[in-house]
Amino acid sequence: MFTPNEISTSASTLFSAYASLAASMMLVRSMANELIPPQLRSYLFSAFSYFFTPLSSTLTLVIDEHCSMVRNQVYDAAEVYLRTKISPNTDCLHVSKTQRQKHLDFAIEKGEEITDTFENLQLIWRFVCTEPKNQYSSERRCYELVFNKKFKDKVFDSYLPYVLLRAKAILEEQKEVKLYNRDCPYGDEDGSGGGMWGSINLEHPSTFDTLAMDPELKKFIIDDLDRFVRRKEFYRKVGKAWKRGYLLYGPPGTGKSSLIAAMANYLKFDIYDLELTSIFSNSDLRRVLLSTNNRSILVIEDIDCSVEIQDRQNQGDEYQVQTRSKLTLSGLLNFIDGLWSSCGDERIIVFTTNHKDRLDPALLRPGRMDVHINMSYCTSRGFKILASNYLGLHHRSSHHLYGEIEGLIDSTEVTPAEVAEELMKSDDANVAFAGLVNFLKRKKAATEEVKEEAGSDKNEDQEAKRLKTDGNVKKIRIVRNIRSRGVRGRTRGR
Ligand SMILES: Nc1ncnc2c1ncn2[C@@H]1O[C@H](COP(=O)(O)OP(=O)(O)OP(=O)(O)O)[C@@H](O)[C@H]1O
Ligand SMILES: [Mg+2]
């Protein structure tokens, strides 16, 4: 133990030692200033600082907004990722929302810090903005990521890849599916200047849950889409372009367009709705298709009506010259194959038609449209989905007309669109179901009548053929007249 006297003596000794050290330092410094040239002096000073400053235990990564002229993906990912890490300690935030956005966007203010933890490792993110150097340059923005040096490898190998992946997933979740078409060729609604394609948000509410289809077919389509999106490496390995073609065929109102919307909503892929009648040449088509993005669905509706189907092989030279610059179906198919082979990833193309039998065989060739989907008339299994969605009736036992409707639907050619329309007529299940039963009965009767007429026409033709071979033309005319009068009479009488 020291006495107060001893403490005071030691303190004054220490103070005088420090004072003499400081005086000698000043002396050395003033001598150095006189003797050593300024450049050498500054070099010695930095070397001195290097050796005598305590070593920092932290490492700071600077993540700039741009690398050369292009955006830095790590910066963009950090911006998205950090939105989900805003803590109650954050003092200032930027908040924004454009007219088309469904959710609010947050961003931290310059100078703000966000703390993150990853597998017991603590990291600090700091948003830094530096004023432009002159009027020609712009503000420099970057994130600084600060952490303990000894975790450098973990940050590079695990944390940063994790941030990139998380940001991608967050963007996917938030993505608003867009519908592009060429009706407004002066840019999209965000004002981003799409040029060839204008876009609006796809507001189509169709999903696989709302689609009235046989459950097996629905499952097959979902599985096929899932397999397609996860097979990037497979396509690369086998040397095939990463694309998939679907041909949807069936009568109007069976849900072809609804299925396309459901696919887009499921995959979060944008839709490019291509009206081929607005394309006049192959070069036009090339320009338009090259300006579409990856992870999208290119849709060509009513393909049988869109392009004149020409068998080019059978045309003369003159014809070839005339049509060289025009768009033909085979030109379109060859181009799409070529385009996708050279650029573009994760592309889906969908053709729809009401008449599969009228399509060019080139389109149906194996390998061209990978999946052919028959969108058929409504079945009792499809009705189950509609009754559940429209009226909340999930079982046959939930309404006394349910069973009768199922029987009628399975024996009548009625589209899901027609059934849906009847179900929408009232919120009261009794009224809606009674209306549907009436509609189905009328439809069934009309269909049977048409079949009957077709059958009698067929018989008539067969008989006419027989009479013709007998050389009795007069008799043919008589038979025809009698038959047609008979049929008309029956029809009117109903
Ligand atoms: N399979 C279905 N499931 C649920 N709703 C359907 C289905 N099919 C049709 N609908 C209803 O009918 C409407 C019209 O259907 P959609 O436009 O999808 O038919 P489409 O097959 O594309 O007809 P088109 O050949 O005339 O283009 C849809 O908006 C939807 O309300
Ligand atoms: Mg359609």
From TrEMBL:
Catalytic reaction equation(s): ATP + H2O = ADP + phosphate + H(+)
Pfam families per the UniProt record, alphabetical: AAA, AAA_assoc, AAA_lid_At3g28540
DNA-binding keyword on record: no
Key words, A-Z: ATP-binding, Hydrolase, Magnesium, Nucleotide-binding
Biological processes per GO annotation: response to stress
Region (Disordered): 449-469
Superkingdom of origin: Eukaryota
InterPro entries in the cross-refs: AAA+_ATPase, AAA_N_dom, At3g28540-like_C, ATPase_AAA_core, ATPase_AAA_CS, Mitochondrial_chaperone_BCS1
GO molecular function, one term: ATP hydrolysis activity
Cofactor(s), names only, from the UniProt record: Mg(2+)
Domain AAA+ ATPase residues, every copy: 242-379
Similarity annotation: Belongs to the AAA ATPase family. BCS1 subfamily.
Protein name per Swiss-Prot or TrEMBL: AAA+ ATPase domain-containing protein
